[in-house]
Amino acid sequence: MSGYSGDDVIITSGYDKIIKILAQHLDIRINSPVRSVSYGYSDHVTVETKGETFTSDYVICSVPLGVLKNDSITFSPNLPPYMKTSINKVGFGTVTKLAIKFTSQFWDSDVQYYGTVNENTGRWPLWLNYKTFSDENILMGFCFGDYALTADRMSDQELLNDALEVINNIWEDDVTDVQAILRTSWLKDPFSLGAYSFPASQNTEEDFENLFEPQNERLFFCGEHTNLLYLATTHGALLSGIRAANQIIDFN
Q: Is the dihedral of CA 195, 199, 201, 207 positive or negative?
């Protein structure tokens, strides 16, 4: 995977700042989950949501791979067998994030990331120190791989207890009381059902190419899972959206 020049930057104001810029002057409907997409017509596409039906010249489907795997949206006609096979074959995982706010700081201020090792691979191996960019006494832990599949399904208290067991093993009696927590659980979110795609052992490059192949010159696909070069990244998702827009232009 090739990278971009410059330092990594943490967006302290949140990713929604980027979304708000990109969403300017767009007609965005919230609380309108898509139920079906009919793309078999020669001159239009029909999209049915919970309360409305929309007709357009083209549709770009940007839902996460987990939603496609779950058949949450009905496509008419059905997506071709080769595409459905690739949807099922490409890996899709999750990452668990837990931000813990403590009553006072007990770790160094100038270390941005702490790495930990324990018997369970993927169990809180990385901790982000908010003190490097914030006044808050917060450590944010990450779970990866198979362990994230377990962590995402934990209750808030179970997740906190699991994380504190690792933290207490490092800082021991210096650990202070917990004031608040904020977590993710992408695996349980019906609009994502996971966090990121990855090449599974049975994947070929063709599988990823199949995921963004236009259907009937009306239905187009984008998302990080359709960009093999930049899988599992925000910029990969953005670039795939630009690619889908250019595909539509090419058909005109």
A: positive
Does residue 150 share a domain with residue 124?
Answer: yes
Number of domains in the chain: 2
Give the DSSP H or E segment for 214. none
Q: Is 28 left (phi over 0), alpha (psi -120 to 50) or beta?
A: beta
Residue 86 lies in a domain: yes
Q: Which residues contact residue 175 at a Cβ distance below 8 angstroms, ignoring those fewer than 6 apart? A: 102, 106, 164, 167, 168
- Whether residue 207 is contained in a domain is answered as yes
Q: 153, 183, 213 — which closes off a domain?
A: 183
Structural domain boundaries, residue 119: 96-183
The reported pTM is 0.92
One digit per residue, pLDDT tens: the chain, 252 residues? 456 788 777 888 888 998 899 899 999 999 999 999 999 999 999 999 988 999 999 999 999 999 999 999 999 999 999 999 999 999 999 999 999 999 999 999 999 999 999 899 999 999 999 999 999 999 999 999 999 999 999 999 999 999 999 999 999 999 999 999 999 999 999 999 999 999 999 999 999 999 999 999 999 999 999 999 999 999 999 999 999 999 999 988
Tokens at residue 249, please? 């232009």
**Which residues on neighbouring strands pair with residue 36, listed in sequence order?**
48, 74
**Burial class, 134, CB count within 10 angstroms (exposed 0-12 / middle 13-18 / buried 19+):** exposed
Give dist(CA 216, CA 45) in Å, integer.
10
Cβ-proximal residues to 138 (8 Å cutoff; 6+ apart), any chain: 99, 100, 101, 102, 130, 131
Alpha-carbon span 115 to 126, nearest angstrom: 5
